[in-house]
Structure formats: C-alpha cells, structure tokens
Design a protein that fits this description.
disordered C terminus, six-stranded mixed sheet, binds adenosine-5'-diphosphate, 37% helix, binds magnesium ion, alpha/beta
Length: 258
C-alpha cells in the first residue's frame, strides 16, 4: 500500500511572494517507479519535501497508500543528495538507529540484524563497522539506501541521490537501485536532472517546469534493464529525442498523460 496521489497542490515558502508549486497533479501507482525531471529551481525538492511531510501545503491534497500525508512517517523513506549520516556512528549503527527510531517495538538485536541484512543487500557486507569518514561518497550513499531498506518503507522518495557521485559510482548505484527495485517493487519517486538516469530507471517520466508538471511519458522498455545496451539502443535514442523535443515545445497541445 504505497501509491502516491497529489492533487492541485499549491505551496508558497513563508516570506516569499510567489507560489513555488502552482497546482501540481501527480500520481505514482503502487509498485511503480516514476522519474521526475526538470530544471534547477522548478520545485522538485519542494514537492518531495511536501510528500515527506516536512512542509505543509497551502492547498491541495497529498496521499500515500490512500492515507493523507500530515507529517513525516515510516511509510515513506527519503534519500537526499547528501547521505546525512551521523559521523560518530558506524555504518551498522547509523542504519540500526534509524530502524529503531521508525519502530520502537524492535529490540537492539533485531534492529542490528535488520541493519546488517540491509547493508549486505547494498554491497557493504565488509564495511559495516566503518565510520562515514572512512567510506567513499558512493559507499555513504549505499548506507543511506540501506537505511530506508532496513526501515521497510513501502514508498521511497529519492531526491537526486546520485548527483554528487562520479560517473563510475553513479552507474554502479543506478544498477544497484534497478536490482533492488526489481526485487522489492516498492513505489518510488525519483528526482533527477539526468535524462538517461530517468529513462534507465523509470516506468514513466514526469517533466516539471517551474511550479507544475507539464507532461508525463511512458518508458516502454522491458525489465530487467541493462544500462550499457539499453542507453545506446536505437529505440532509446528515439525516445530520448522525442522526449527532449516535447519538453522544449510543451504546452497544452503537447500534453501526454499515459
Ligand atoms: P529544485 O529541487 O527543482 O531545484 P527547489 O524545490 O529546491 O527546486 O526550489 C524551488 C524554488 O523554491 C526555488 O526558486 C528556490 O529558490 C525556492 N526555495 C527553495 N527552498 C526555499 C526556502 N526554504 N525558502 C524560500 N524559497 C525556497
Ligand atoms: Mg532539488
């Protein structure tokens, strides 16, 4: 039960005069992976913060799993560009701390065992006792992913989680996320400004202009997907070209809502 529904969402930051979100409509089906792409400053992170329950809307509605969003909740796991780990805690302790915070009924030993399982899934079986400053940026982001996996959140809100990584780490993390999603089929809203990343990962891509979503496009490629073969295929090049030209020409006539 993790689908997302956003209807006519309006939001203005306190102290600013113009609306940051001006009637956003968005739906992510249960078990769907939706990539959200748009230029810097168009409101992607603001939308994600509202879905995370970190901001309150001025008007409109937000639902997750059919339940109105009124604040942060353990049904939604958030990963930001910065992994935000406690520097004095090991990878294992960072993950088990978050797990215990999201479910107070768990014992320390249960949380630790769940943390270890999640860290194994993200490829950190040999690095659990390391402190964040002993881990590379890619490894730190793996810990942040293990944290939401361990918490068992059915819905993931990911805000440019790989943007700060070098290409090799970025590709490895994209492949990891593809594999995890294929195993778990969680509901995912994935914010990026990278068209290839949006296509590789998503079932659909939603395009945002300042304050609103202007169109959505289905990604027709079957899974499992292989980065190297998919992104250079002629079908993918044609899709990329079509989506870019639609995005440039968007308007009422260019609206596509599969
Ligand atoms: P994106 O993630 O698409 O780059 P953001 O959601 O971060 O965009 O920002 C959308 C707009 O809201 C930008 O114009 C930004 O300057 C503004 N903004 C973001 N955070 C705040 C804030 N805390 N207070 C006021 N304005 C903000
Ligand atoms: Mg942002």
């Amino acid at each position: 039960m993790g689908g997302i529904e956003v209807k006519d969402l309006v939001f203005t930051y306190p102290g600013t005069s113009s609306e940051t979100l001006r009637g956003v409509d968005l739906s992510v089906g249960e078990g769907e992976f939706l990539s959200l792409i748009g230029p810097s400053g168009c409101g992607k992170s603001t939308l994600l913060r509202l879905l995370a329950g970190l901001e309150r809307p001025e008007s409109g509605s937000l639902f997750c799993g059919g339940v109105p969003i009124t604040g942060p909740g353990s049904d939604r796991g958030v990963v930001f560009q910065s992994p935000a780990l406690f520097p004095w805690m090991t990878a294992r302790d960072n993950v088990s701390f978050a797990i215990r915070k999201s479910d107070h009924s768990l014992s320390r030993a249960e949380a630790r065992s769940r943390a270890e399982e999640a860290l194994c899934r993200v490829g950190l079986a040999d690095s659990m006792s390391m402190l964040p400053n002993q881990l590379s940026g890619g490894m730190q982001q793996r810990v942040a992913i293990a944290r939401v996996l361990g918490m068992g959140c059915p819905t993931l809100l990911l805000d440019e989680p790989f943007s700060a990584l070098d290409p090799k780490n970025r590709f490895a993390l994209q492949e990891l996320l593809l594999k995890l999603w294929e195993e778990d089929r969680k509901t995912v809203l994935f914010v990026t400004h990278d068209m290839d990343e949006a296509i590789l990962l998503g079932d659909r891509v939603a395009f945002m202009e300042p304050g609103r979503i202007v169109f959505r496009h289905k990604i027709p490629f079957s899974r499992p997907r292989q980065r190297e073969t998919l992104l250079i295929s002629s079908e993918c090049c044609a899709l990329r070209r079509d989506m870019i030209s639609l995005f440039y020409k968007w308007g009422e006539t260019a609206e596509v809502n599969p």
